Amino acid sequence: MPMLATAVAAQAADMGLPAYKAAPPSLLTTNWSGFYFGGHAGAAWGSTNDDFNDPTALAPFRWDSGIPVSGPLAGGQIGYNWQSGWMLFGLEADGSWSNITGHGLCNTTTFFMNCSSKIEGLATVTGRVGASIDRALIYFKGGGAWGRESETISNVALAPLATAFSSNLSANR
User: Fold this and answer.
1) Is residue 82 part of a domain?
2) Would residue 92 count as lying in a domain?
3) 95: which strand partners?
């Protein structure tokens, strides 16, 4: 029986294709530039500390109070960020309606009276300076804050005052 044999070199099916290489790591940072807006809701608690001094000669009157306050707040914010390379600069304004209230006794010149406090609204305007590092934004923020507060002092017709009265003071702080 005659036999015919031929030598053939083995070849892989993927021969000739380039080897796979992972993509190089990105050197670009996230871009935080642009306009933004949003809403917020929450709660606040703390205390208000107020002093009042009326040096009227006929009836000098002085009171101070430290009233615990708490309540809800809700509002919105708007701002804009500018990014140049890894540095970030921004401005933001926000405003909140609030119903942060508290009641307690306040110490007056010679007797105790009822005091109450209500913070009706809060607002801030701030600037921001920061750095974008990969997908994180690290920044410092500072600015001004305003609050609308009203204080009420009243009695319930007890001695030494024979008649009931109530007085309300409101202020932007």
Assistant:
1) yes
2) yes
3) 76, 123
